[in-house]
Amino acid sequence: MASLLKATPISVSLQFKDGDETVIYHEASGSIHLINELGVEILNALSERPLTFNELIDAVHAREINKFESVRQFLKVGVEEGLIEEVSEEEKE
């Protein structure tokens, strides 16, 4: 069974003026993160519902832009930083 991933709640999102990066405040940890455009897409997709890695790749159109490694790296850091968590199949709905 593939593991499911979901974004943890984020309380505030501020857009930088250049539009390339976003600052988010993660209320649970009290930390601030600088996120690139792909990271924002990933968090938005995972905020809608838990997804498997393959579902996430499709949701952020990473197959077309060949960003597998960038997605993997963001997920790794996102889990380490508490922005993303693995959930069980029962928590999917």
Our count of helices gives 4
Q: How would a crystallographer describe the biggest sheet?
A: 3 strands, antiparallel
Number of structurally distinct domains: 1
Overall body shape: globular
Strand proportion, as a percent range, falls in: 25-35%
Distance between the termini: 16 Å
Q: What string, H for helix and E for strand, traces the elements in order?
A: EEEEHHHHE
Q: Give the radius of gyration.
A: 13 Å
The count of strands amounts to 5
What number is the mean pLDDT? 83
Helix content: 25-40%
- Physical arrangement of strands within the biggest beta sheet: 2-3-4
Contiguous low-pLDDT stretches (5 residues minimum) are none
Structural class: alpha+beta
Features:
three-stranded antiparallel sheet, alpha+beta, single chain, two-stranded antiparallel ribbon, 93 residues
Task: Write a compact overview of the structure shown.
The chain is α+β, with helices and mostly antiparallel strands. Helix content is 40%, strand content 26%.
Q: Can you lay out the helices and strands and say which pair or pack?
A:
Layout: E1 4-7, E2 12-15, E3 21-26, E4 31-36, H1 37-48, H2 53-59, H3 62-65, H4 68-81, E5 84-87
Structure characterization notes:
The chain has four helices and five strands, in the order E-E-E-E-H-H-H-H-E. The chain is α+β, with helices and mostly antiparallel strands and 93 residues long. It has one domain (8-81). Helix content is 40%, strand content 26%. The strands form two sheets. Strands 2-3-4 form a three-stranded antiparallel β-sheet. A two-stranded antiparallel ribbon has the order 1-5.
